[in-house]
Amino acid sequence: MISFSLAGKTALVTGANTGIGQAIAVALGGAGAHVIAAGRSSCAETVAQIASAEAAQMDFADPHAAADLLGSRQVDILVNNAGIIRRADSVDFTEADWDDVIDVNLKALFFTCQAFGKAVLARGGTGKIVNIASLLSFQGGIRVPSYTASKHGVAGLTKLLANEWAVHGINVNAIAPGYIATNNTDALRADPDRNKAILDRIPAGRWGSADDIAGAAVFLASDAAQYVHGAVLNVDGGWLAR
Ligand code: NAP
């Protein structure tokens, strides 16, 4: 299991105060990494659960929020998890709901990858990027146009960056979580019809938990994934197999 160890590595996890980001941060820490838990809200609760961790205040409405940190510290693992969703019928969807989602989910993700890639290439090192995609990287969804566009974009950028950087020792991959019980999906679970329709289609017969995503993140962040490039790994209880 030594190739799964993250001992001696530093990992930056965005949106690490809650949900999937928190679970990934705790798991990377459990695998031995020093974790920088980044978020616009306090990450103190996450840091408290990890042997070696620190919090960093960052708002990814600014696409360059992580640039200073990535330019000044050696970070070996980047998990781009911060993301938002806005729901409305497409005919009513506002420009603000388009821009806010694209800015955080896609623009900030790209420029954070860029800052990470620049730093790794400059020091001639190696690195691992794990982007958090979605089932809506593959499917259309409904009433979430900017989210779907952003997550299709995340899958595309993951492959593009893998094509450019694999030869330099940077693994760029993504995880596509299925329906996971977090703040992001509160509205779906509160709607009895949507909740039932979703549950009926999940072969595993239950919503995922944030912890269900953590193992895939540790794998993709580790040397065990050394030859994995440009993959979008579904962790979805079988949803896409249906
Ligand atoms: P969540 O509980 O709402 O977490 C979202 C995280 O992103 C929070 O930490 C949030 O911080 C952070 N964030 C949002 N905007 C930010 C900004 N401008 N700057 C810094 N941090 C920001 O939802 P989640 O389900 O864990 O989502 C995590 C990721 O998984 C997202 O990329 C989401 O699209 C993706 N995902 C989720 C599901 C699911 O079923 N839950 C499925 C597929 C993909 P605040 O707490 O401060 O808002």
Automatic annotation (TrEMBL):
Family indicated by similarity: Belongs to the short-chain dehydrogenases/reductases (SDR) family.
GO molecular function, one term: NAD binding
Name listed for the protein in its UniProt record: 3-ketoacyl-ACP reductase
TM stretches of this protein: none
Pfam family, one: adh_short_C2
Record carries keyword Ligase: no
Keywords, in A-Z order: Oxidoreductase
Originating species: Actibacterium mucosum KCTC 23349
